[in-house]
Amino acid sequence: MTTLLEVSGVSVSFDGFRAINNLSFQIGAAEMRAIIGPNGAGKTTFMDIVTGKTKPDEGRVIWGERSLSLLGLSEARIAREGVGRKFQKPTVFEDQSVQENLLMALKDRRGPFSVLFYRPQRAHLARVAELANEIGLSDQLRRKSGELSHGQKQWLEIGMLLAQEPRLLLVDEPAAGMTPAEREHTTSILVEAAKTRAVVVVEHDMEFVRRLGCKVTVLHEGSVLAEGSLDHVTANKEVIDVYLGR
Ligand SMILES: Nc1ncnc2c1ncn2[C@@H]1O[C@H](COP(=O)(O)OP(=O)(O)O)[C@@H](O)[C@H]1O
Ligand SMILES: [Mg+2]
């Protein structure tokens, strides 16, 4: 499998505390990967480093077939390189419809301005319809986004990220606050998305992780403690001690 992202020997300290400690791992170009581990293991900090929000003290973060180092790049530039990130709190425009939110997010459009002053082109509307179908909101296109349920807002935000056509999608604890049915729908959206891009999901819900059906990386104290299938890592004694057995 072609490697899309390679993190090697990365460390970062906050006030002398090593949140990421010589972290190394790789993500393939069309791979789904789950990251699990106890609170404070460094999962969110890993995403902060990849997206350029946090600069590591040491190590390398290498991207794509041109082996571009992401470390010197701004957050905006890294996003343009194709790294999308979903935060826990959805950031949809509540006063706009689902369709308007998706239109604004399209890659070849330039922000809210164009939605206000131009009639959307047929191709844009077709792409929005496709995205709405991918996230299961086809029958909600005219709804005001503020009226959507928590789960639907999360899906809309995933749709807005997919509209940017990222090559890597980072998703931090998507299942939090969702009903079991919403969680199931979220897994199917992510599984579908990972067919054509890399998707990295941090999640504590083991049922959710099982449904992703992917390789799992266990982080502990800022390093990889175990990696492999969910059955493989959950049978690991150290993983049970630091995470599962609590
Ligand atoms: N910007 C920051 N400043 C200070 N400490 C931080 C910062 N970001 C993360 N940390 C610390 O780094 C450790 C790892 O945090 P985090 O990556 O959020 O863990 P996780 O997402 O696995 O729960 C924690 O001890 C956290 O308090
Ligand atoms: Mg976190």
From TrEMBL:
Which Gene Ontology cellular component terms are annotated? plasma membrane
> PANTHER family per the record?
CONSERVED COMPONENT OF ABC TRANSPORTER FOR NATURAL AMINO ACIDS-RELATED, HIGH-AFFINITY BRANCHED-CHAIN AMINO ACID TRANSPORT ATP-BINDING PROTEIN
Keywords (A to Z) from UniProt: ATP-binding, Nucleotide-binding, Transport
Please state what the protein is called. Answer: Urea transport system ATP-binding protein
Under InterPro entries, the record lists: AAA+_ATPase, ABC_AA/LPS_Transport, ABC_transporter-like_ATP-bd, ABC_transptr_urea_ATP-bd_UrtD, P-loop_NTPase
UniProt keyword annotation of Acyltransferase present: no
Q: List the molecular function annotations (GO) for this entry.
A: ATP binding; ATP hydrolysis activity
**Which PROSITE patterns does the record associate with it?**
ABC_TRANSPORTER_2 (PS50893)
NCBIfam families the record matches: urea_trans_UrtD (TIGR03411)
Q: Which positions fall inside the ABC transporter domain?
A: 5-246
